[in-house]
Amino acid sequence: YAMTIASRAPLLPSSAVERPETLTAIRAVVQCGSRPVTVLGVHLSALLGPGGFRMWRKEIHELGELIATLAPPFVVVGDFNSSRFRPEFARFVRRAGLTDVHGGVGKGLSRSLKLSDRGFLASVPAFTRVDHALLSPGVHALDVENLAPAGSDHHPFVATLAVHPDATRDLRDAPPAMVD
């Protein structure tokens, strides 16, 4: 698996690769208005491989511990290899107090995973969403656009987010800074 976080804004010195045990995450920290915002990129193990579910559960547990160390505002984005309907994933999102971008803008039933990126199975439409952007308090989804896959069995997406200048307050209290 490979991950990349691209940013128009310079990465702050607290950006790093995180490797607690089995989980690998990319931490990118950028200045958004008056606040630093952390974007954590992840790619969790596939569930269907040998030992996959056991590895996935360990990674989601480690991710929960890592998130507990982050101060809002932050975004956790990537291939979680789970739909929002998997009980363990739903519990993780709820316990961490996160909001899903797609659900936040009314596109929670959109899909991101195809059966294949080539051949006959590539013609079958995507059937579930396993790629998510999860938002901490102080970050709000304004829009999300699902894109066509380009050489992958996953549909990428672009999220437009608003970050409140004070992560302890709600967006309705003041105009937000924008991140793309």
Chart the SSEs and their pairings.
Blueprint: E1 16-18, E2 25-32, E3 35-43, H1 52-67, E4 74-79, H2 87-96, E5 99-100, H3 101-104, E6 131-135, E7 139-146, E8 157-163, E9 177-179
Helix pairs in contact: 1-2
Structure write-up:
This protein has 180 residues and is α+β, with helices and mostly antiparallel strands. The chain contains three helices and nine strands, in the order E-E-E-H-E-H-E-H-E-E-E-E. It has helices at residues 52-67, 87-96, 101-104; strands spanning 16-18, 25-32, 35-43, 74-79, 99-100, 131-135, 139-146, 157-163, 177-179. A six-stranded mixed sheet has the order 1-2-3-4-6-5. Strands 7-8-9 form a three-stranded antiparallel sheet. A hairpin with a 6-residue loop joins strand 1 and strand 2. Helix 1 (52-67) packs parallel to helix 2 (87-96). The longest helix has 16 residues, at 52-67. Mean pLDDT is 79; it is low at 114-118, 120-127 and 170-180.
What's a concise summary of this model?
17% of the residues lie in helices and 28% in strands.
Main pleated sheet = 6 strands, mixed
Using the alpha-carbon principal axes, give the shape.
globular
| DSSP strand tally | 9
Helix content: 10-25%
Radius of gyration from the alpha-carbon trace, in angstroms: 16 Å
Helices and strands, in order, run as EEEHEHEHEEEE
Q: What is the strand arrangement across the widest sheet?
A: 1-2-3-4-6-5
User: What is the number of helices?
Assistant: 3
Would you tell me the structural class of the helices and strands? alpha+beta
